[in-house]
Specification:
Elements (H helix, E strand, L loop, with lengths): L2 H31 L2 H22 L19 H19 L1 H22 L11 H17 L2
């Protein structure tokens, strides 16, 4: 296995841990300030400031000047992140962390199957196979088991 593959696997594992922690932490923040939407706003604000500082430290601030050169529709990714943060804050107290995370993963897998199948956004085409569908079905079974 290549070094970049190992780093990617470790990075995504750490990100998975972070996503599991983010929901309940933000839900506590929402309870503390009395607003789910306010907590989502603060969460995004903290993330924005952190990324901005890192970007400037690494000398990549000039990349923001090239925003005018990309199609405006590419900016919708931020709204998808906002949907996730808001949904997680609202859903964790209702579903619990395990079910919320499992549903998140199921949604990601279903979307990933379709994105791969169609080679969306310039990705390499990867056909939907019985094995890949089974992987998603097992996560769906995990959703059911997480509620019992």
């Amino acid at each position: 296995m290549s070094q970049s593959t190992i780093i990617a696997l470790l990075l995504m594992t750490a990100s998975g841990v972070a996503i599991s922690l983010q929901g309940p932490l933000n839900a506590m923040l929402g309870r503390g300030i009395g607003s789910v939407l306010g907590a989502a706003t603060v969460s995004f604000g903290v993330g924005f400031v952190l990324l901005l500082v890192v970007m400037l430290i690494l000398g990549e601030g000039g990349s923001l000047l090239r925003l005018r050169d990309v199609p405006a529709w590419l900016l919708i990714g931020g709204s998808m992140g906002a949907l996730y943060v808001f949904s997680a804050i609202w859903s964790v107290p209702v579903l619990g962390v395990l079910t919320m995370t499992t549903m998140l993963i199921l949604g990601q897998m279903v979307a990933a199957l379709l994105l791969d199948h169609f080679g969306a956004f310039g990705m390499v085409v990867r056909e939907i196979s019985p094995t890949r569908v089974l992987a998603a079905a097992l996560v769906a079974a995990g959703v059911i088991l997480s509620r019992w």
